[in-house]
Design a protein that fits this description.
With about 475 residues, the protein is mainly beta. It has one domain. The chain has four helices and 29 strands. The longest helix has 8 residues. It is globular and about 95 Å long. The protein starts with about 25 loop residues before the first strand and ends with a strand. About 40% of the residues are buried. The C terminus is likely disordered.
């Protein structure tokens, strides 16, 4: 069982920003802490517990976060740290495991609930239905009406054949609602096969109206209007992988260290990170030529099969590229590109400050991965470390259009944080006008406390220059 995140100190508040960002970076690990502000909402669970949730907004690269608390228990009922499963538009799905329950509970936080204020609802037992129907997680949400009083939660599962999915939906009414299920036939673009549309979604994006997109960062997006009972699904393939990513990764691992995808202002936007590598020269052993020998000793005559030398690559930099497309387009258009050499040497702020509070480094000599898109200005946030096993990391802002560096934030982290960061992009803040003055500066624990899944990339092929 993981240690409870509530034991960590809350991040200190930041100075108020009169023009906060609509987009932000949301920490998927919540704090167990009582906090009340304009975003606070609560609900009574079936077991009689009062769960309260508050949201603290911060301008990126600082992390926004949730505080979750149980008001009517002297002893904390949380068996593990609450997690944000997904965030779509003004909603966030929060996973909570309580000592009073046998299975995880899920709560839907809406920044703009039925009365225009934040709301919190306990959802039906998702886990029981998910196990029966083998749902893809995370789930998506859309509002059913203009005043946002009703919503629909949607999920996909595989159908009976390639290019077929089942759409599962449940509407507001919550405990009184039941799941519905229908078969979806996916429309495949010309030149592709149905098998190419068999995806394993890593995230869900809202595309306006009732449209949701289930995103496989390797293969593509399955898009469906979950409010239209007659709607079919469509498939949008991802851009072609950059050469080194295709050779070193393929689709054998999580794509999160390499790609991210968002939707804003009518465009789907994709960013891809690629390490620039150079083949390390190999030393070929000298083979003696018997022609030049007067004697051949028996000990020298063993027949050794030729050994295949494994190719080893050194990382000499990295590249970033963005692509974008409209919903009705039949292809991607190139956005911005930047190379690590474009950014040169810069100063890394150190944890704790002090006399040696900054370290001057060349970006290409840092271990870097996991691009995250926020908004539509080709601003990308990267995670960097000096070495993979370090306990310190940085969230770095890269303005790709200007080929320049923005703000750099230090944080403490486990080594694998670089490949599976605990934050995602979100737009919750723009639905909380009263909360925009509640800015928060990222705390050291806030950025990176949760230990992410290990990412075992092809390290034998990827060795950093000493």
């Amino acid at each position: 069982m993981s240690s409870l995140h509530g034991s960590a100190q809350l991040p200190p508040p930041a100075a108020r920003n009169p023009r906060p960002h609509d987009w932000g970076l949301l920490n998927s690990t919540a704090f167990i802490s009582v906090l009340r502000n304009a975003t606070t909402a609560g609900t009574l669970t079936a077991a009689g517990l009062t769960i309260q949730v508050s949201f603290v907004s911060a301008d990126p690269p600082r992390l926004s976060y949730f505080c979750v608390y149980c008001l009517n228990r002297d002893k904390s009922p949380f068996a593990e740290t609450p997690k944000v499963v997904s965030s779509v538009e003004d909603t966030a799905l929060i996973h909570v495991l309580l000592t009073t329950e046998d299975s995880p509970q899920h709560f839907l936080y809406r920044a703009r609930g039925p009365n225009g204020r934040p709301s919190l609802d306990q959802l039906p037992d998702i886990q029981v239905y998910s196990r029966t129907e083998f749902l893809f997680l995370p789930l998506g949400f859309v509002s059913r009406d203009s005043d946002r009083k009703q919503f629909v939660m949607a999920a996909l599962s595989y159908g009976t054949g390639d290019g077929q999915y089942n759409l599962h939906t449940i509407g507001s009414g919550l405990h009184s609602s039941t799941w519905s299920k229908k078969l979806l036939q996916v429309e495949i673009p010309h030149g592709l096969t149905a098998k190419s549309a068999v995806v394993e979604p890593a995230k869900v994006i809202a595309l306006g109206g009732g449209l949701l997109g289930w995103v496989d960062l390797w293969k593509g997006i399955v898009i469906c209007d979950v409010l239209n009972p007659e709607a079919k699904a469509s498939f949008v393939p991802m851009p072609k992988l950059l050469p080194n990513n295709n050779e070193l990764y393929g689709n054998q691992y999580s794509a999160r260290p390499l790609r991210d995808l968002t939707f804003s202002n009518g465009y789907i936007r994709c960013v891809e990170f690629e390490e620039v590598v150079k083949l390390r020269p190999t030393i070929v052993p000298v083979v003696a030529d018997p022609w030049d020998r007067d004697e051949l000793h028996d000990s020298e005559l063993s027949i050794c099969p030729p050994q295949e030398e494994e190719e080893v690559y050194d990382v000499v930099g990295w590249r970033l590229i963005t692509w974008y497309r409209g919903l009705t387009w039949n292809g991607w258009r190139k956005g911005s590109m930047v190379h690590s050499d474009d950014l040169g040497t810069f100063s890394l702020p150190q944890l704790g400050g002090g006399a040696c509070a900054h370290l001057n480094v060349s970006f290409k000599n840092l271990k870097t991965a996991s691009p995250t898109l926020c908004g539509d200005d080709d601003v990308v946030y990267l995670v960097s470390m000096l070495e993979e096993d370090d306990q310190a990391a940085w969230i770095v802002t890269v303005d790709m259009k200007r080929k320049s560096l923005g703000e750099v934030i230090p944080c403490s982290a486990h080594g694998s944080f670089i490949y599976d960061p605990t934050f995602v992009s979100c737009v919750l803040a723009k639905y909380l006008p009263d909360a925009k003055s509640d800015g928060a500066q990222v705390g050291l624990q806030n950025a990176c406390d949760a230990a992410p899944q290990n990412f075992h990339g092809p390290e034998k092929k990827r060795q950093r220059l000493s």
